[in-house]
Design brief:
Blueprint (H helix, E strand, L loop, with lengths): L2 H32 L6 H17 L4 H24 L7 H23 L15 E3 L2 E3 L1 H20 L3 H11 L1 H6 L4 H27 L9 H11 L4 H26 L4 H15 L14
Antiparallel strand pairs: 1-2
Length: 294
Amino acid sequence: MNIEFFLELLANGALTGLMYGMVALGIVLIYKSSGVLNFSQGAMVMTAGYVTWLMTSFGLSIYAAVALGIVAMFVFGLLIERLLLRSMVGQPIIMIVMLTLGLDVFLRGLVPGILGTSPKHLDIGVGMAPLILGDVFINRVYLVGGVVALALFALAALFFRTRLGTKLRAVSDDHVSSWSVGISVEHAVAMSWGLAGVCAVGAGTIWGTVQGVEWSLTALLFPAVAVVILGGIDSILGALLGGIVVGVLGSVIPGYVDPLVGGSTRDVVTSIIILLTIMIRPYGMFGREDIERI
């Protein structure tokens, strides 16, 4: 076995997994405050990528574009809660989940329809030349993406140690009890959607640089769902480690199997991860196991 090839797959796979984790983090943040699985996070990543690209097309630097994109997507998250989710208070959770799925379809058609379906170039100023460590080639954009992902995970972990973060955890545990002690459940849920929008900017910018900004960025929802199922849908640490596992397996296994079968095994690997996790450990590696008396 070529050890250099294995290490290259391992390193780039881990960095890719961290980038998946950025998408998954938005799902976790919303679930931790509302108990809702957000199926529109992939579309939010695509929207954030388009917003960042649009800002750069006006002549702004990538850093200014990202900063304005953060503000825009945070407000967008607040609007989703205010205009869509607040009207669903008291409805079954499955209906709210279906609403997020409808939002995904809506954004997937609206945003490219307005701004164009052709891939949009986004440049974070890193360059496409790989970083060479001995005989191992590491994608520089993936490396930056991994660093950004780690920063977002660290900020999210610190946030949930603040007073506001404690309120979000309380809301996640029990909406009625939170209302009874004066916590605004609506504001807590809105904040989680705003933070998910911020995560979408990081993921949309990095992935937009890797593959261009277009509607296919919504497909990042699939590996992100695998990440949250494996790591635990309510666990920030689980999203981090689950992302690395999904990224490594989705890189190493196809790296050796694709040449034998003609390619396209990454999605198969991701599907197997989802199925095995649900069958063996439904609440994930670090998810909270809720036991209900029937």
